[in-house]
Write a structure and sequence with these properties.
The complex is a heterodimer of chains A (114) and B (117). Chain A has 114 residues and is mainly β. Helix content of chain A is 0%, strand content 54%. Chain B has strands spanning 5-7, 10-13, 19-24, 31-37, 43-50, 53-56, 65-68, 75-79, 88-95, 107-108, 112-116. Classes of the chains: A mainly beta (114), B mainly beta (117). Chain A binds chain B through residues 4, 31-32, 34, 36, 41-46, 49, 51, 89, 91, 93, 98-107, and chain B through 3-4, 33, 35, 40-45, 48, 55-56, 58-59, 91, 98-101, 103-111.
Chain lengths: 114, 117
């Protein structure tokens, strides 16, 4: 059974703090890793799709890194703002039995206080 | 349309009643996916379609759950004889071409909250 673990489960930071969270996934048969940002009652929105070991992607104040050999990805938010408050989901695809479907972690819920 | 549209937003059913959820993917997207999120747990894959054909149904419960994507109609997910444990948010997503297997991101709808009482 493929498992995607995200930590921490929740995080409370002050406006202006920089923060990061982790996504761990099986390192064998890796194909791609997705990060999504999800505000409650809204649609999850794709942030990054990463495929290559060592990949680094950036979108504004949010960036992500990928280590496929050890099976983890970090998401960084620089200078957190209240509008960054959301649940950040990572999802993994392998070459094998998941048929190319995304296997999600439970997410990290970020709350940014003004 | 330019976004994945899911209806209804909320659905309340008594145990044993039927529930039907709808999803209109973004126009031009070939792949549709259904996910179930129970409580605050992870999104669980149910089924995917390539146009009107089932692509992967390995996540679908064998009984009571069925889904269709017919031409010129919204896709649907139907649950016969709902049970309490079916209470969840059901998300639909679509992608342009071959979906996650080609590193494409998914575009999600905002979900249907199903409450079975």
């Amino acid at each position: 059974i493929l498992n995607v673990e995200q930590s921490p489960q929740s995080l409370h930071v002050q406006e202006g703090d920089s923060t990061n969270f982790t996504c761990s996934f099986p390192s064998s048969n890796f194909y791609a890793l997705h990060w999504y940002r999800w505000e409650t009652a809204k649609s999850p929105e794709a942030l990054f799709v990463m495929t290559l070991n060592g990949d680094e992607k950036k979108k504004g104040r949010i960036s992500a890194t990928l280590n496929t050999k050890e099976g983890y990805s970090y998401l960084y938010i620089k200078g957190s703002q209240p509008e960054d408050s959301a649940t950040y989901l990572c999802a993994f695809i392998d070459y094998g039995g998941s048929q190319g479907n995304l296997i999600f972690g439970k997410g990290t819920k970020l709350s940014v206080k003004p | 349309g330019e976004e994945v549209a899911q209806t209804p937003k909320h659905l309340v059913r008594g145990e044993g009643q039927k529930a039907k959820l709808y999803c209109a993917p973004i126009k031009g997207h070939s792949y549709v996916f259904w996910y179930q999120q129970v409580l605050k747990n992870e999104f669980k894959f149910l089924i995917s379609f390539q146009n009107e054909n089932v692509f992967d149904e390995t996540g679908m419960p064998k009984e009571r759950f069925s889904a269709k994507c017919l031409p010129n109609s919204p896709c649907s997910l139907e649950i016969q004889a709902t049970k309490l444990e079916d209470s969840a948010v059901y998300f639909c997503a679509s992608s342009v071409d071959r979906g996650p297997a080609t590193n494409e991101k998914l575009f999600f709808g905002s979900g249907t909250q199903l409450s079975v009482l």
